[in-house]
């Protein structure tokens, strides 16, 4: 691979990709060390913030269990992202892609529960069932029919935009009543903005940092801010429920 890269560069051509991937300098057994390490740090940030959330929010908060489930889904996704960037195989690639889609879908479910499900739990349960069915069909098609990268990208963009506009719409409607929603606004806008890094497909800097690795590095503080929003919102709901019970 490196002999081919050297010949291309020597003759003044662009650095080639191999099976659709840039050449990376390995570190120990890590095929893409920057992306693997950044994925691990994202997972670590999720775990630390999950621990802080559980320490400050009691289980009686209406959103507690949904937020905890979201945290574990996210941890699972970052685990497989770390594994995939450490060792790229057919199985690890699929697990990375499928778990990433699961996080987006669970964020949509989280938004559904927060905006509608607290007053209409039956609707939230039905919508959650629909999301599970969609994920099952999505995974089945990519696994049993063919692994279509274009379809997978289009599907993730579509559910990502639904997630973006649903959260933004709720935040705009509640910005006066809930001053902490600015955190959620920043998170969803940053995630969409940082996703544009994926379009900057350039050869790895120092044969380590490509656009995907930089994207993973950039999302680390975003995790912290989103959990801060979830904590503030869960405590607000807990207080609101307590005030209602006092009135009753």
Automatic annotation (TrEMBL):
Membrane topology: Multi-pass membrane protein
Alphabetical keyword list: Golgi apparatus, GPI-anchor biosynthesis, Membrane, Signal, Transmembrane, Transmembrane helix
Gene Ontology terms, MF aspect: hydrolase activity, acting on ester bonds
InterPro entries assigned to the protein according to its UniProt record, in alphabetical order: Per1-like
Tagged with keyword Hydrolase: no
Transmembrane segments annotated in the record for this chain: 34-51, 63-83, 95-116, 123-143, 149-168, 180-200, 206-230
Location relative to the cell: Endomembrane system; Golgi apparatus membrane
Gene Ontology CC terms: endoplasmic reticulum membrane; Golgi membrane
Sequence similarity: Belongs to the PGAP3 family.
Described purpose of this protein according to its UniProt entry: Involved in the fatty acid remodeling steps of GPI-anchor maturation where the unsaturated acyl chain at sn-2 of inositol phosphate is replaced by a saturated stearoyl chain. May catalyze the first step of the fatty acid remodeling, by removing the unsaturated acyl chain at sn-2 of inositol phosphate, generating a lyso-GPI intermediate. The fatty acid remodeling steps is critical for the integration of GPI-APs into lipid rafts. Involved in the lipid remodeling steps of GPI-anchor maturation.
PANTHER family in the cross-refs: PER1-RELATED, POST-GPI ATTACHMENT TO PROTEINS FACTOR 3
Official protein name in the record: Post-GPI attachment to proteins factor 3
Species per Swiss-Prot/TrEMBL record: Terrapene triunguis
Phylogenetic lineage: Eukaryota, Metazoa, Chordata, Craniata, Vertebrata
């Amino acid at each position: 691979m490196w002999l081919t890269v050297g010949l291309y560069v020597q003759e003044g051509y662009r650095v080639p990709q191999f099976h659709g991937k840039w050449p990376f300098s390995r570190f120990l057994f890590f095929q893409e060390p920057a992306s693997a390490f950044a994925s691990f740090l994202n997972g670590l940030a999720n775990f630390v913030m999950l621990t802080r959330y559980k320490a400050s929010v009691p289980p009686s908060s209406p959103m507690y269990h949904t937020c905890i489930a979201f945290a574990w889904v996210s941890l699972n996704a970052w685990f497989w992202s770390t594994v995939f960037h450490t060792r790229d195989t057919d199985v690890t690639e699929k697990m990375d892609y499928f778990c990433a889609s699961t996080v987006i879908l669970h964020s949509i479910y989280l938004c559904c529960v927060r905006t509608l499900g607290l007053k209409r739990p039956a609707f939230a349960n039905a919508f959650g069932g629909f999301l599970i069915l969609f994920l099952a069909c999505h995974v089945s098609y990519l696994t049993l029919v063919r692994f279509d990268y274009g379809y997978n990208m289009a599907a993730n963009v579509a559910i990502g935009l639904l997630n973006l506009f649903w959260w933004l719409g709720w935040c705009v409607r509640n910005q006066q009543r809930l001053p902490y929603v600015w955190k959620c606004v920043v998170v969803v806008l940053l995630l969409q903005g940082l996703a544009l890094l994926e379009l900057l497909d350039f050869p790895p800097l120092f044969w380590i940092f490509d656009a995907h690795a930089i994207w993973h590095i950039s999302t680390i503080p975003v995790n912290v801010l989103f959990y801060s929003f979830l904590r503030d919102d869960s405590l607000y709901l807990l207080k609101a429920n307590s005030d209602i019970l006092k009135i009753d």
